[in-house]
Amino acid sequence: MSVFPALPEGRLGGRAGTVAICAIVAAHLFILPLPGGRLLLLAHLFAICGAVAFAASGTISPRVRAALLGVGLVGIRVSLGGLPLPAIDAARDLAVDPPNVQVTVAAVLAPLRGEQRVIVELGSARVLVSTPPNPQLFVGDEIECQLDFAELSGSSIERLRVRGVSASAQTRSVRLQGHRNFIEIIRNRFGDDIERVIPAPAGGLAAAITIGLRERVDERLATAFTATGLGHIVALSGWNVAIVLGAVGRALSGLPLRRRRWALVAAAMLFGIFAGASPSVIRASFMAAAALIGAASGRRGSGAIALAHAVLALTLLDPAIVFDAGFRLSALATAGLLARAQEWSNRAALMGEKFPGVVQTPWRFIGGDVAISIAAQAATLGVVIALFGRVALWSIPLTLLIAPLIPLATAAAVIAVVVGELASVLPSALLPLTSALAQPATALFQACAVVASEGAKLPGGALVVPRSATIPIGLLSTAIGWVALLRPYGSPPLASVDETENESAADRRLGQKLLAATCVLLLLGSLANSYASAAPRDTLRISVLDVGQGDAILVETGGRRMLVDGGPDPARLLTELDALIPSWDRRIDILVASHPHEDHLAGLPRLIDRFRIGGVLGAEERGGGPASAAWRRILDTERLQYRSVHAGDAFSLGQASISVLWPDTAYLAAEPTNDGRSLNNRSVVLRIDVHGFSALLTGDIEADIDPQIAARITTPIDLLKAPHHGSGTSASRLFITAADPRISIVSVGVGNSYGHPVAGTIARLSERGGLVARTDLQGRVVTVVDLETGAWHTSTSAGEMAVPSRAEIERLGSAFERVGLRVTDAVQPLRLADAPLAALGGCRLASATIRAWKAHGSFSRGVTTSS
């Protein structure tokens, strides 16, 4: 008697499924923390098991023979092809003094905190390397860099082994030697086309879902998809392959059936390779190919057998694939769907008949999808808990919202690829046409992004499992889930065929109408949002963008735009700009590069592919890091109009007059030193004046330049972009007294390693009664000036700010005791009029000032403290 349960062949693939399951189990044993020699000995033992399976074919159970065959095939593959993962002792020789090496990029991972992450091949080893965002790297690129290996601990070695790499490293400078992978060049060209016409972050999401460029998804949006359990939406899988095969099948409908099936096999495999060969899409491509080959050869098969063949083939091609989370979840989810999805969908339909009438109609649309989602969750929940230690509680309802949009969005994205290629060559006058053609894809992918982003804010979004309990709870959940999937159920009663077909046809027609109506509403909403985001032509709008630890300021008036700096993160800059600039008018008239530091320049090189740039202004081009070098190459090759500016220069933007206050030509004449302070003090400082309103954009100037700047500030400033992110070496009292701003905006990143902004600087900025806003606490800060009345207001992502009038500043400024202010460690906005002195952490204030604040409390709520 077989030791395996007699499972139906259509459910788990019969003996083919047994071979695949045992092969996967055997491959998992190579993660054991053993030296390489012992792991190879284990592989030899597995190979002997395979030999036993062939030699004893007549004396052992077919199921046992199938199990030994699966183990033996993996053993033979590892014995001949090498270990699937680096051995426990493989990383020791790499963590040495780093040479200047030339390596090949083997994989591009999702960015982390603005840095690129790539896996490179260093000899026979693979190394996970964090690099600056410029130059942008693709699979197959040959690069020269100096690797600074991170200190390896026991936990990091295990984590890196699972990724298939032997070490991790950091590099601060990358020199691109050339591109080798033609397929990757084409893929990324298509990704550029998509993002050229679909605004961020929807464009990056479209590139990920359509052609597998997951590294293009905005980091914050990717976090939202993960937190809500919607990561499977971003991963290419079965429905992408189905869409491609459906399109190819229609195109080849004139061919004989047998030839068409073999053509579809080729299409499935080619799409898997072109889409980046991620484990989930390769699994789907192999599974489709296995099913088509079986049909073409006339053999009886099922989905479960096709899945078993696909999983076995992939495991033998690369045993390391079994350690990939995407492959595990994709294979398990597919198995769960094959096991029970259809039956549970039927039971869900019967269950709906018992619901009240008002619930029955919507249940007919979602009941089957709910059952399918539950089947997939039952198959994968244990692995999710074991790998990630958390369960997204809103995953199923959010999946039901997004899933119907994905096929339509993918088809629309294919059109966007063509439109984006046209947009790169068409004149500016025709760009609104390309935007209109891409608008359906924009609306659909924006809707998906909103569902994930808002879903991440829902209460009780995730159940976190203690780290020590993830494995046992994961194993228990896996056992419960698969018992539910495999236990025998009685057959549900069946309705008559005619009744079922009539109800299905009616539901299908109604569902199509609802989906069409939803798409129309999304399209109208997307257009309305784009129109609403544009700056009114009769205003001046200054937006200090939330780009992390860096600067990027967008100035708009009269239909003209000026961008000052680009921040440290290209993806974050594009997301911020696309939230404010309509997709049919991607134009920046003046681009200002204040000085060549990474946190001001890194976002600019990739801006050229998305926006039409009128002209570039700057002062100092020498020095800087990789972003500065990439920017200089672009200035040399893209034929951009560049003009060097210095103190005394002036130009206009619409009705706004812009004066250059710094740097002096004499200061620029000297060669900059290598220290950051020298380049900071060469920042372009701009003053903007329009209808009685003034703003001062200061770059990263330090306090030792303040006397020169203060002498050139002839009238008080309404809006000040605080110098150097509020550092302790900037914004002296002399400078602040001369500027006397009504509001100061600190552009700074959350939890940055520099400690910006410091408490003393924040205290100096606010001690005369002006407001202080911070992008790390309040997000994007937008000031809008009415050019007819001169009135203006400031708002942040957190809400409207009540800015004090100039009269209030003058009346209250003298009431401040100019003493060293000690500020609390808690970084939060305070309504000082209502806060007791103890809550201010010992901030000593004159009694006159307290009384004045209480009398004018309407403006004090914007003051912000700092740690």
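Second entry:
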Amino acid sequence: MPQILLKSAKSKLGKYRASLFALILMFPCVSLAQSGAELLNATLNQYCLACHNDALSNADISFQNIDISELSAHGGLPERLLSQLRNRRMPPMEMPKPPEEVYVELVNWLETEIDTLAAANPNPGRTDTFHRMNRAEYANAIRDLLNIEVDVEELLPADDIDAYGFDNMADVLTVSPALMERYLSAARKISRLSLGETPAGPVSTRYEVPILLNQDDRMSDDLPFGSRGGVAMNHYFPVAGQYDLALRLHRNYVNYIRGMGSSHEIQVRFDGRLIETFQIGGEEPDVLQAPASYGGNQFGDREWEEYMLFADSNLRLRFDAEAGPHVVGVSFVRKFAEPEGVLQPPQSVFAAAVNEMRDGNVAIEEAQITGPFEPVGPGDTPSRQAIFICAPEQGNQRAEEVCATEILSNLANQAYRRPLTQEDVDTLMDFYRVGRGDGQEGFDAGIQLAIERILISPDFLFRVEEDPLNVTPGTDFELSDLELASRLSFFLWSSIPDAELLAVAESGGLQNPQELEEQTLRMLKDPRSNALVKNFAGQWLFLRNLRSLVPDAVEFPEFDENLREAFRQESELYFESLLREDRSVLDLLGAGYTYVNERLARHYGIDGIYGSHFRRVELEGELAEQRGGILGQGSLLTATSYANRTSPVLRGKWVLTNILGTPPPPPPADVPDLPETGEDGQPATIRDRMIQHRANPNCAVCHLPMDPLGLALENYDAIGRWRFSGEAGLDIDASGQLPNGQAFYGLNGLREILLDRSSEFTGTVTEKLFAYAIGRPPEYFDKPTIREIARSAELDNYSWSSIITGIVKSAPFRTRRSEL
């Protein structure tokens, strides 16, 4: 549109609004003496009609000539209105606003009326009929069905994530021909691996150690005390036989092995038992000429070069392994005294800039396991024990058929999460007979092909919730016990039901609310409920994002893989403790303790912590203020930063969305970038630059409630370190003020404000858990149920179990609306 026409249009629109606003002022003023319905209509007419009328209809909402107090006639509009009033987002900042007491009265009345109407006319909503397993659920189901751990990231592509931030939502778990091909391939590989089929030839598996992983400390609980560096490989050996292990050491950028100036002892262990020792380094022939630098601009004698390039070529061994999962550990013997006075060749200026310490620690770059050689059979692995619940007499075909039927019926009953039909059994036995062939392939081959068929069955890959026959369209019905059992197990375990849950479901016990609650509490105590940590908290708290974060190496050279892993473990252990101890949801903001190892403790400034293992530490004084709760943990602080600096916007948005449940709208397409300097061109704090940014009214609407929340965390840099100064050495001001005028300072002040708004926080947690449990985004008609669950949980101090059992016993979890 030409600029002059645009100005004309804006002028006419402004005149229209002014005229309408003048007309609105003629309406009677709002008064608390009015009834709730009268107060609502009067408030809308006086404060909202200027924008939300038939002519303008901002946000596609018009209050003109309607009685909004008839709540049931307006679908989700009353719930949207309640949200806007509760968060004081409307009217917009440039327009007159009702008095605070009017806001309070309207919020209370609206919430009460909406919830009362919902209680009288509940709507459980409708989940998708077909709900595919996501990648994590598939791996867990394979583990619980066949007692084998698989690398699901190698087998299947990543799942999409919906707007709520979860990858277990039915609407994004679509199926394509390419994905089905991957499922077919995965089923073939898993079925062969679980039975111990001998590969056609030796197969190699590489275990790469991240280059930024510091190997100066003990790396794993599977490696011995007094060790450092290396790698612990949880390797699945398909059959018993001989296997090769080959090691490659870290090199500098011109391929010289690092740390070869002194001797190092490498130990190889199989399930903790020492099977080989190597010596490496410290053997260079000192009579030979070394280069003047290790930067690659000069070379030494040929023998010296070969030594520095190929000294690890003999780090190989062949060893015997039984079939099944085993831990192969490679580590260095830790030296507790550092060498002194080690001479290096004279260095040029170039060499001084690029030389790597040749007398540092050697590190593992890669380990490769190859085999089997001379295989001797599948052995008695945990997966074979889970599969072969009977053993037929060899050569007795009738006995084999009976045993195969027993094996496959047992597996399919678990996999399909329901009793089998005769057709199910006949289909699997047909596949068994094809696989077994005329006797040469054998009993195991028949079982393998039938298991492959189970793993690609829609009854395994999908949760199916069908409408009952002859049900009236648009009416509510209870899920069957078996459907409820699947919902419950995929919610709490991200996996299939166990034998006890299936037995209770088959007996019809889950329709009893007390039995349903007892099963829920039992399952929460089971280690498999750690899936809530990995999959629910992992996505809600952005812990999964840590893997892809790459902080700027120039700005933050201290960041390494050890710190990345420590961030993840701290937050997972913290959330797990809240769940296991059934603490209050509010403790997520600060429970007075955290979990650290030496690397993380050093990062946080916590003294007296040594070793790579994590332990629980109590936080007191300044540490409690700085590190108490999830908002003070490096995982979230790093995940809500840019690579080279903090982002109060990202941090504030996370708090608004995931703590207070009021996500800001997406920014306009033409939003300007944050200024790099102050208005005078001089260095400026992030706070001053954001004030410049908010000078644009279009930006201020969203940033006013968001920026103070993020600026309160400015004492933490982009990798979660505590600091007192930021860009250009300027002092940090972590003070903030909410749009309602409430002032606070730093994380401690922010924590107090969030705890004061505990109903909003617990409501948000409940809503997130509700979405994760149901497998669909909450609709407006779900909000009353979510509020009721949170209100009931308040009686138990918002314990995790009270919220989880409240969700499980709610109508949307137990019932479903039939298709219209």
